[in-house]
Specification:
single chain
């Protein structure tokens, strides 16, 4: 009987450990919050974590480019697609070309990716924010996944 209990406890550990490790946010620097306004390039709906990929807009309001002239891209990880759909974040509300603002905790390794912090603010179609500002400053913008930006 004791052997069965020991095997059961060890077996449960094998299943719980990957689940806990998967949901760790240790790879994100939670001491830093970066605010971006950008243009959606794609929405990736996944069961575990949905992602928005985007090109950030620079202080001049134009898409940011690297020293090679290519567009710089970033991504933001969120909860699963079903969970964020209840917050109004879907492929239909954030299609390619949508301008939005987001706060995120960046990856510790410096890669252009982060974990969402708070609401995402979507600018009205064809109404980007003034250069150097974010969508929360645009009349008619909508908040998704929260009420404060």
């Amino acid at each position: 009987m004791k052997m069965r209990t020991l095997i059961a406890i060890i077996s449960i550990g094998f299943f719980i450990t990957p689940a806990i490790a998967h949901h760790s946010f240790a790879m994100y620097d939670q001491t830093k919050t970066v605010t971006w306004t950008g243009v959606v390039t794609r929405y990736v709906a996944q069961a575990n974590h949905a992602e928005l990929h985007f090109v950030p807009l620079g202080p001049d309001g134009k898409p940011e480019r690297g020293s090679d002239g290519k567009l710089i891209t970033w991504g933001v990880e969120m909860a699963g697609a079903a969970a964020i759909a209840t917050q109004g974040i879907t492929v239909n509300t954030f299609p390619a070309g949508t301008i939005f603002s987001v706060k995120l905790n960046p990856l510790r390794d410096g890669s252009n990716f982060g974990s969402r912090v708070g609401a995402i603010v979507r600018c009205p179609k064809e109404k980007p924010p003034e250069a150097g500002k974010h969508c929360d400053s645009v009349e008619g913008s909508t908040y998704h996944g929260g009420t404060t930006f």
